[in-house]
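Case study 2.
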Amino acid sequence: MNDESKKSQGVEQKNRRLLMRLMLVVVGMFIFAVFLMPPIYDVFCELTGLNGKTSGKAAVAPTVADMSRQITVEFLVDTDKELPWDFTYETPAMKVHPGEISKTLFFVKNRSNDAIVGRAIPSISPNEAAQYFRKTECFCFAEQRLEGGATKSMPMIFYVDPAIPKHITTVTLSYKFYNLTHQAIAAPR
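Prediction:
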């Protein structure tokens, strides 16, 4: 072998090693983004109250409502473009007294002919209000399965903690439904 051929082989080996390293980095980034980042993000949001995420745990209601003031609770709904569902609410807003148990309904309809599993992700604004908004029952606590063409009524029971600061007079609760059908099928039962 001549020197030129040896140099060419050396460059090819270096390129292969570099390509393998880059592929490992890409695989590592994918694993981090899909499997590690969501739980880290959830913990971060729970600790800081950022993104208006509420606790996924059912809350115990207080015994005394503050009848001296009212909070307007607004509802916003949306679906991911990958989810062929209509998602609506019973009412766009409610006036509630802090500490008072309130109930509202949300509705979904599967426009497709196939069974689909969806999950609603809540967000609250202002961010400061998230720590005072308590849900005792919510469709967002679990995945929702709808057969093709089916409709479903989903209750949400909640209260606003009486300790909510007085300057917060409006709380906006938004839900976005995502299609989890492929993940639900792949999950071991």
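The chain has a mean pLDDT of 84.
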